Fold these 2 entries.
Entry 1:
Amino acid sequence: MWRGLYSIDMTYDQAIDFLYTQLPMFQRVGAPAYKPGLDTSIALAATFGNPQDLYKTIHVGGTNGKGSTAHTLAAILQAAGYRTGLYTSPHLVDFRERIRVDGKMIPREEVTGFVERYMKLGFDKSPSFFELTMVMAFEYFAKAKVDVAVIEVGLGGRLDSTNIISPCLSVITNISKDHTQFLGDTLPAIASEKAGIIKPGVPVVIGESEGDVREVFAVKAESVGAPVRYADDETLYSAAVAVDGDILYRDTPFGDITGALSGECQPKNAATIMVAVDELRKAGWHIDDRDVRKGFAEVCSMTGLMGRWMRISEAPFTVCDTGHNTGGWQYLARQLDASPGVKHVVIGFVNDKDVTSILKMLPADARYYFTRASIARALDEKVLAENAGALGLKGAAYPTVGEAYAAARSAASPSDTIFIGGSTFVVADLLTMLNT
């Protein structure tokens, strides 16, 4: 089918080009790439021998915090000596960030080999970018003989393509409004979609929930006989204290823990992770206290995690963060407000977000550098500046993240703060620029 466009003896760049341009990719085009339902995923995985059934899996969903949670769980399992796969999305700089074994990205030749074999199959359905990438990960984990793979949900849960796995533990971090055009416009409706990863008899840990949202989870868990634990009912530390850019969690069952992830949302994620680890240990997993401490302290170096209140420089204090919805900004706005000096905010969004609700959370006295990421879904920076100006936020528009960041660097004094974010793709453009 694609022989006229690509050689079956393809290069890595051709394989990546095929994935990006020939398959619907939500990261780039948004709604047209969203394919609810599992039929294609089931058929594609079966064509490759259902590799996801050859090792244990842990399924991590939720609106915010699922990336940090998945990476930290993977780091803890690695520290405990388990050969650990990790599948996450989206990537920031390199496609291969999505698929890792013991922190190492999938080799380029494995990506190329998988795409070549897929093209030879004559598969009679049209998988999305995410569906094909997911099965690539599942097969690579089987080839690498992992003991366990931590699988992050892409979007939603019930109809997300990753929901073909049979995990030994499910984790749902929290619920807030995001992707409402697909998941529903109320928190209980979104919770119902996220709860779709709860499997019969499989323990589930819920990070944050209350009221109607908790009722959704409780009803779903009871209906399938899944034991459920609520992390916000049993916080396994006495205090979370900021220390030198880290967070110290005191009096945990694993001893005092230093967490390398320092965003204001991280104590909630940490509570979820600790309960999940406790649940794994009760199920017979051999995870020592020192493994938990190492995983929290070294999560970034062990798994390659980037973009979570990530420090770029100290003078001026410069950070980026991939938080991109109202739930994430409830934490980011407070953290930004507590940062030193004048705030210089480089910000951009995709065009299907509730931008107005986020803009209302931002500090009115900051200086703004409105920009757009280098993807088709990006909101025009001039439109963003106009919308922000109507809410009293003052700044100028810049056509690229690089130009916006350069302007902020030029204007900021050493005692100020520069923040870059609003969209995962703004952070991706920044890190790509800094890495070249």
Entry 2:
Amino acid sequence: MQKQVVANAPIVAAEGAAFSILVALSVSHMLNDTMQSLMPALYPMLKTELGLNFGEVGLITLAFQLTASLLQPMVGLVTDRKPMPYSLAAGMGFTLVGLLLLSRADSFVGVLVAAATIGLGSSIFHPEASRMARYASGGQHGLAQSLFQVGGNAGSALGPLLAAFIVMPSGQHSVAWFSLVALLAMTILGSVGRWYVRRQASRGAKARRVAVPQHTLSRGRVMMSLGILIALMFSKFFYMTSIGTYFTFYLIHQFGVSVETAQIDLFIFLAATAVARSSAGRSATGSGGNT
């Protein structure tokens, strides 16, 4: 492994991890992913009340995933070059608007726009939040990423449970109450952004030259490795999204359970997935720290 000397690189390791910031990012990740996971949990209700067919449900999922996932690399590319700490709160603002739109949507197009807006908020949040967690890690990257992921995994499982006990008894309009959750997350993330700006300002001229590890792999090997990783991630999320979208419909049709029961079963499925992802994440970050 070669090392390259880079000027003006931020020195965080010597200062230790900012645990309050890591906790704030983990909590915000939980709140964000809770609101994101509401979307598929509400499909049975939306299908019934708005007369949607399965093709339209699939298009809603497509719009949601296109903005929530495929935009993330582009956002990450921009924020890596020019950090935007306040974009975290701005991204959560899109989620807030999307929830309000969803609570009032009375047509397929309305739900489509709401889903795309909620997904856009997620795509803005995740890359910069992940970068901020690494920045606040104090060199403990595995710990920081694990804390960040635990929050997201917990939030992904909570959405269906909240849909079963809050939205289903009260109706579609009650989705608007979750905008208060988005507002809370915006407040937390605004504080995180201010912390980052102050820390950068106080460091200022203190930045010195540090050694950054550089790989010795060829461009072809790097591209092949990235291609394999992308293929694996695509295949994983392809079937996870498919199951998450249609699992409740299958339970309702096949076993005649209520929508609320189907959502609770979806919660159990997603909670088990979250535990597995957290375990895999700890293993990956643990092994990564030893290489």
